[in-house]
Hints:
The structure is a single chain. It contains seven helices and five strands. The chain is an alpha/beta fold and 212 residues long. The protein has one domain: Rossmann fold (3-Layer(aba) Sandwich), CATH 3.40.50. Helix 3 links the parallel strand 1 (67-71) and strand 2. Helix 2 (17-62) runs parallel beside helix 7 (189-210), helix 3 (74-87) runs parallel beside helix 7 (189-210) and helix 5 runs parallel beside helix 6 (145-156).
Amino acid sequence: MTLDALYPFLSQQSEPLADVLDDVRRSTEQKAREIVALRESLVDRHAPGLLACAAHLADRFEAGARLYTFGNGGSSTDAQDLAQLFLHPPPPARPLPAASLSHDVAVMTALSNDIGFDVVFARQLGALGRAGDIAVGLSTSGGSANAVAAFEEASRRGLVTVGLCGYDGGRMAELDCIDHLFVVPSPSVHRIQEAQTTLYHVLWELTQRGLH
């Protein structure tokens, strides 16, 4: 593939800069409208569930629970952001014990190499999780095998389980072991992840309000 094909705006034969900028503007406006509409739709879909989940998490934190988050790829980044939000929130919010299971590269690579990638989260929850702790997993597809295994392990050990996924929920929507599930109904990975950030920030804020 030629450079001109990859970056047509660099070619002398490309369309005028004003037209390129106009295309960029329209695309940006369209994406902004899409995510605003999607986020607004989540109010009716998930408001009662978010309130119930936050009350549940607040009760568990008051009883000494720790929060464990997990996800793959971009969802791993969001999981780390979520753990950081609970652990080191902006003042005057109360810090709460939280950790991302994808943060320790040595553990992730050891489990992947020695056993298999499907267990990288489940094995950590088996070692670290206690009954009453909280496990939050993010997956855009809802079908990540290691996330499913982690939810099943967390449920067996008595952890509160919270799932965030996209599309129609995938395998996560079929599980009986997820206590609180929030599906973002979109076919776009980008819009799903953008909306999930809104969901978990709202969940964090509601949890903070539920603390005594």
